[in-house]
Structures
1.
Amino acid sequence: MLNQDQIDIFVLGDFDDYKVVRLIHQFPFENRLKPLNFIYQQDYKNIITEVIEKRSVNQSVLQLAYHNPISYHDEDYFALLVFNGLFGNFPHSKLFTEIREKEGLAYTINSQINSLTGLLNVYAGIDKKNRNKTLKLINKQLSDIKLGRFSSTLVKQTKKMLITNMQAILDSPKATIEKVYNSKYLKENPDIDHWVNHINQVSKEDIIRVAGKIKLQVFYFLEGE
């Protein structure tokens, strides 16, 4: 990595420019310019891959990987963010409220999206006896969203959470660096008002359309013994 990969160094805060440059020059870096591909999209397969493992642990783990054709710069990206917030990214999301709170089937459950690869991942920590029931209920929550079975109140709450989280993240040093990096390489619009406006414009029809594109690809179960 040190010899071949492109390396970007960001320094943030109150520092001595000269001292930082001297420290960096201690590494044997040479000039290099690498072609970088930030967006990766895996092809969809009609066959669902199933993987089951057994280990000597108390808690079992259920993970589902979904194919999602929407990536960072796509028109439906903001609708995808709202969908994920509605589906499983927040404590008020359908996965959390229906499976953990109402049914008590999961110690923890959430969904996450990798915006550069399109991967939608659902993670649930459960008892092994609850595997099939949990899987069935996860499928039901996704199906309900595809059919439009969710309230406008839930959508508003999700949008508010997304916006609040984004505003909080922007105050962190890590987010400041990521903002500069994304602006340079991903051509992202760094304006928070632009981002908020797009989130607020997402409609129920947009969410349903995005949900219809989500398809299960991999079923993984780590069975505790």
2.
Amino acid sequence: MTDSFVYLIAGLCLLLAVVLPQALRSLAVSAPMVLVGIGLLIGLLPLSGEFALDPIEDEKVILHVTELTVLVALMGVGLALDRPLRPRERRTWGHWSPTWRLLVVAMPLTIGGIALLGWGVAGLAPAAAILLGAALAPTDPVLASDVQVGGPMLAEDLEELEEGLADEDSDTGARLDEVRFALTSEAGLNDGLAFPFVYLAILVAAGGFGLADSAEWLGWYLVGKIAIGVAVGVGAGWLLGKIAFRSSRPSLRLAEQGEPLLALAALLASYGAAELAGGYGFLAVFTCAMAMRASERKHDYHRSMHEVIERLERLLTLAVLLFLGIATTRGLLSDLTWTGALVGVAVIFVIRPLAGLVSLSVRLRRKDLPGGLDVGDRLAVAFFGVRGVGSLYYLAYAAGEAEFEDLPWLWSTVAFTIVLSVLVHGITAKPALDRVDRRRGAQGPGLAESRRTEER
């Protein structure tokens, strides 16, 4: 009986994964909202205990499932970004201006704001407060798909985009989808950049944090491991791109064969190599995808790889959200207090929006240039900092590395914040971004970069 119930639920869930994206396209309801809701209902069924995961007892399962889900999402995000980043060309750094602002300014402000709230209002120990900030600060690459760009564009559209980016005297900036690009690129990079602060929480929890520990954290965890992760990712992406597109042996030119599983091989290889080298694997996967994309930007092979990654991401997201919903009904929120609920509400409605606005409003780039944001764009980017699967991963990872006080409270608070984010951002994403699109469309036909979003 129990096994039959498991197969029935699994089959219905797979059917949902296929049907939901199309069925909800015209509605102001996101697939994550529906999946979490279904999980909540399943959790009420008598046999749902088969699916219920305890964050303390099943820590390793949660760790590895969320880890793989984030990795797949990061590979998809890296392949989906059409706007090039060429380090030797100063102009392209400006095209990514919102991304750098969100990473360098908004993210530390968000971590600090959440940690202070956890420490001052919820009474958390410093280590637990820092971990709470690090876990809830990143914009999630998994659940933020409704506010991100779609898959790689066609070759002719990409050529139009690059011609527009090369001529900054044109009206290209006014016609680009800066909101979705900013949120997508931020989600791709900030999951890896949250790790230094997760390690900071682990180091503080392990004992005294003196001057030597500070130097180690700054030099190794904040700089060294980031540099290694980026270097491994770029190197792996360059090598795999060279083999797939320009190998002297036809059997190795996978792009000509259209074999999309190279994306999975690249994901696993870059992550494993970066972790073995001591770097941040999340950054390595994202930069590997970007380097592969840069090796032959206009080839349709990238679309094939992205389609495989997108389908795998959809299935993994389905599983995570259903388990989250089931666990929520089965007691995951049992340790939630009013202070935890306050933290979650503050993250969604106050801390992230204010930090985002501050980062995007200092020394503004002209809104008619690529990378420039008008007032409406800044408000949208600041608000849609979706919290999700990455937060669960960071909490599970830190819990396995050190002893944290109030760990059940942390799990309840993080879960509550994710569910609240799914609900709030799921309801508001479509109408808000439709308004952004209409405002941009009033300035003239948009470039292909903005038209791809209909594919989701």
3.
Amino acid sequence: MSQQRIPAWITVGVIPLANILIAAIAAGLVFLYLNINPIDALQSMVSGAFGSGYGLGYTLYYMTSYIFTALAVAVAFKCGMFNIGGEGQAYIGALGVGLVCLGLGGHVPFIVLLPISIIAAAVFGALWALIPAALQAYRGSHIVITTIMFNFIAASLMNYLLVYFLKPVGTMSVESAVFDRASWIPQMHEVFAFFGIRIAASPLNLSIFWALFVAFAVWVFLWRTRWGYEIRSVGSNTSAARYGGISISRVTILTMLVAGALAGFMALNVVQGQAHQIKLNLVNQMGFTGIAVALMGRNHPFGIVLASLMFGFLTQGGSELQFEYSVDARIVVVLQGLVILFSGALQHMMKHPIERLYLNYARRRDANADDQHPAEA
């Protein structure tokens, strides 16, 4: 009988689902404390997130943003770095998208403007990650500290630019002018209406397809390219990678550039697809939530897509919960925190028991197979 290995579907599928189940039980206890029937609360959340075209649109809209920010965390994690800077990188990516839409909107066709805004989101986000990457690669500064600091710098910089440069004259709101309509990414209800199909209006827009494509592209990049192999090698064993001739500094910078670009893509969904202007606090903590999504998705693009859907459900379903039961708005944060707790900090609580169960089952299965088909002498 050969030595058994834990299959990927256990690691990526069963263990996260078990963690979610325990988080749901813990959330049920919270609802009982609030004198809310947990079953009723769950039904309300499911109905609010998936029970209508409006709710589903919002769920998938949040999912789109979470895919981008979680991929930014996952790529860095594969290189052994913890990118906490998705919030700032997405913010600066929004600046790039906003400048393109303000400068070119209405002057060039949308089919020309969209690739430019995609490039701008990637370049601005990547450049904001470049300085922390260089500090890590050449000065030994810890990436966690520098990326956190750059989140605050990004917020201050955006505040300054909005107040003194981007805010239209005569307005009190700290936000840019609304983009020309020709630069807006079409929303899904508009696309369906073009084909004569009516669905509920929501912020969901075509950038969701870009998010899914990017998730697939990240999988190809990490597992099917030489650069991806180098990133994973550095993350697995830096000393062995250096001994194998891999430049740690170069891979560090490359990884953070890719991560920053991925975070910057979030602006396509939020700025060009929904708000249609640059606003203060437009990222709305989605960069930090992306950390939890990446942890729950085991830093794998496929897992991240599923985890993003889960967190989209929590965000939209939690909003419905506030409306139905008048609970504090921070109940959404509590629910997300429970998922983070059991999917991140306590992930090994279920990991080892489930793996032991599988290994015991696999041994019995192989033993039965050996008894039924004994080896020939």
4.
Amino acid sequence: MTDHHADIFISGGGIAGQVSAAAFAEAGFTVVMADPFTPVVTSDDEKSDLRSTAFLQPARQLFDRIGLWPLLQPHAKPLEQLAIIDTVGWPPEIRDRRVFQSGDMGDEPFGWNLMNWVVRREIWGYLQQQPRITALYGTGFRSIVQRTGEVIVTLTNGDTVRARMAVAADGKMSPLREAAGISVSTTRYGQKSLAFTVTHDLPHDNISTEIYNEGGPFTIVPLPDIDGQNASAIVWMNKGPRAVELLNMPVPEFEEVMYARSTGLLGRMRLKGHRSSWPIITQTADRLTSGRVAVVAEAAHALPPVGAQGLNTSLNDVIALLELAEASPGTLGNPGMMRSYEKARSGDIAKRARVIDLFNRVTGSGDSVVQTIRLLGLKAVHDVAPMRKRVMRAGLGPG
């Protein structure tokens, strides 16, 4: 057993935990990060995270600031346009199409698309070289004792960690959040999303596309070519039973259904690798702090995969906590800093959760009245320039 001493303890070694560790270490803090699982850093492992993320401008700025962007940029595809296609019926009938241009917001893309497993691989390699970071994969959080000036964490292998602040970045079922006595509020939709990668006949032209239909969006996210072929990541939301049916469907039949659902937009699509499935919920922590524990990312908020808000909202948590720590290193984990973090993030998280909840209900509805409202709303948001820019700016993050 080892007694570790650090400025910050991070529970969770997923993307949010990894980025948190890299960010605090770059700012001069010592970090112990623990996760019960070794990260999956290949695409063909059954546990691989086959989702992709469009990292928006604030996330890219954070990556630049802490030295991660040179590692990630070679694997990124810029998100220059977002196309929304509204459909009804089966096979889907296109009613309207609108394209949002990043040029409306400036010279940079909206974001940069990366596969989640690739991000984990690149940052995992980076963490091994950082002297201020002790990354303990294969051992997780067990218990915590909070004192006036520190926390004492016990890990599953019997090690202890003494730190000035603890960060819960350990997912929707966060054991550290629960140990800190923070409850959650959860909304379930009876939906699941499928995540997988495809190659396809036609180029994607760096356009991310969301195709609305009953059950939820079919989202096409551009990727770099795979073996010389056009490639995209797909997130396909459905009612739970339909998602399970699609998950287990033979590949040839699945590809036929996928072609119809995509409206043939990119020609024939061919499945690359396996399909994974994720439940769709909205879950928010009722508080973001307890003593010297701060809650971030999916431990603080799990949102439906709409509008690239999930992981980007998580990184906005990290940015806020980092800026507070850098502004006053001597108050790390103190009550005043914890109150400031709660104030900085709670309002934005609550607002985004409400908006995404409503958006998810509207985009996945099979009700004809709601579908008409959806179509009218799409036209209004796109065609009125001030509203379009306001919506796009809000999507990038707070401020």
